[in-house]
Structures are given as structure tokens and as C-alpha cells.
Amino acid sequence: MDKEISQAVVSRLPRYFRYLGELKASGVERISSQELSDIMKVTASQIRQDFNNFGGFGQQGYGYNVEYLYDEISKILGIDKKHQLIIIGTGNLGTALAGYTNFSTRGFVFKGAFDHDPSLYGKMIGDVEIRPVDEIEDFIKKNNIDIAVLTIPKDQAIPMADRLIKAGIKAIWNFAHVDLDVPDNVQVENVHLSDSLMKLSYNINRYERAHKSK
């Protein structure tokens, strides 16, 4: 059985991957934990602890081979292989997500888009055609879809999630304003954009209070 890794460590992996990708593109061949710490503003000891969860990757006195570490984190994140996605809900957010080309460079390929609005059927988002939601189950099975992206109202999200799970979806990226409770064999990432904005507001207020007291 795989070692259980804390979600705090998992949440840092994409950031490591992003920075290592930039280093690799810049021609950097190796880097120490301290140098990576200076770039990422994460302590060197935290970096070493995080990587030790997966075997360490580094050599004493040498540091980390950037390309090797980049490739290994890619494998850990599962983005060394393609993932097939569909999106349900083609409003402003859904359209923006489906049209974001950087997803495909990470191996996330949008294969289909679905909506309840008949006036949208047949229209294109990039090279993806908008289809009726009644076709979702058949499309999932025929196209080996792994991930569904939900950008629909919260009252539609729970019944839609049930349909997707029954159709064999492995994971849901959920932008609806409701947390989804799914079976253990289905992964879900609930994304609440307003929560992130409120966190930003809190940090503005905290900074202003701290500087007013000086």
C-alpha cells in the first residue's frame, strides 16, 4: 500500500513542478534545497521533508538534478500521461476554462462540452463542440473520459455528480457553490473562487491593521 501523504505536501507539489519547469527551461541542471528555498520562499528543511516522502531525490553535496526531479514529480502527480476531460456548463467560467491552452501542455485534454441550453448546441469552444447534457453518459464511455469539470449552478451540481459517477467518471473538478460528497473511489476537488477572494481580503485587512498600530 502507498504511504499516506498529507494534503499539505500534495498541495505544494504543483508549485514545485511549476518552478522546476521554469528552471529546466532556463537551462539549470542542478539546484540545492537552499537555492530552491530562496526562489520559492519555502524553507530548505520543508523542501527536504516534502521530497523525503517520495524517496528524497537528492544527493549529499550535489543537490537535485532539475530535469530528473521535474520528471519524478510529474509521475507522482500523474501528469506524465494524458487525462481526458469534459466540461458541464459553458457560461463565462466554463468557456474560459475550456479555452485555457495551458491545460493541454500539462496533459489535460478537453474532449467535450455540455450544456442545458439548446441554443448553444453545435457551437464551438476552441475545437470542442457543445452538446446536450443527455449525451453525457454515452460520450464518457465512448471517449474514456477521466475527469468532469462542473461550472453549473449548485442546485444542478449534486444530481449531475451522481450521473457522472454512475457513468464511470474517476474525478470531478467542481466550481459549483456546493461541496460534493462522493464515494471513496471518486476524487473531487471543490473550488470556491469567493473563498480565495475572501482570504485575500483578510490578508489585506491584517496587513493594514498591523501597519496602523506602528
Automatic annotation (TrEMBL):
Pfam families: CoA_binding (PF02629), Put_DNA-bind_N (PF06971)
Keyword terms, alphabetized: Cytoplasm, DNA-binding, NAD, Repressor, Transcription, Transcription regulation
DNA-binding stretch(es), residue numbering of this chain: 15-54
SMART domains per record: CoA_binding
Example of a GO cellular component annotation carried by this entry: cytoplasm
Residues involved in NAD(+) binding: G89, T90, G91, N92, L93, G94
Top-rank lineage group of the source organism: Bacteria
Presence of the UniProt keyword Transcription regulation in the record: yes
Main location: cytoplasm
Key word Glycoprotein present: no
Subunit structure, as described in the record: Homodimer.
Function, as annotated: Modulates transcription in response to changes in cellular NADH/NAD(+) redox state.
Protein family (similarity comment): Belongs to the transcriptional regulatory Rex family.
Stated name of the protein: Redox-sensing transcriptional repressor Rex
Organism the protein comes from: Butyrivibrio fibrisolvens DSM 3071
